[in-house]
Amino acid sequence: MIVVATSSANGCLYCTVSHGAFLRIRAKHLIRPSLPLPQELHLSFASPYSR
Asked: 40-48 — which CB contacts under 8 Å span 24+ positions?
């Protein structure tokens, strides 16, 4: 999930699509409107470092 967020922030369409497809296959239960707090914290921590 962090890879998808950082790929999207960096504007890499190929990486966003390919990693997003892998994430959807491996973690179907994660597709919902909001994320649990631990995952939100991981994404908010990793996103600034990807730029």
From this structure: 42/1, 42/2, 43/1, 43/2, 43/5, 46/2, 46/5, 46/6, 47/5, 47/6, 47/9
| Residues 6+ away with beta carbon under 8 Å from 46 | 2, 5, 6
Asked whether 43 and 7 are in contact (CB, 8 A), the reply is no
pLDDT at 31 over 60: no
Q: pTM of the prediction? A: 0.48
- Work out the average pLDDT over 6-25: 82
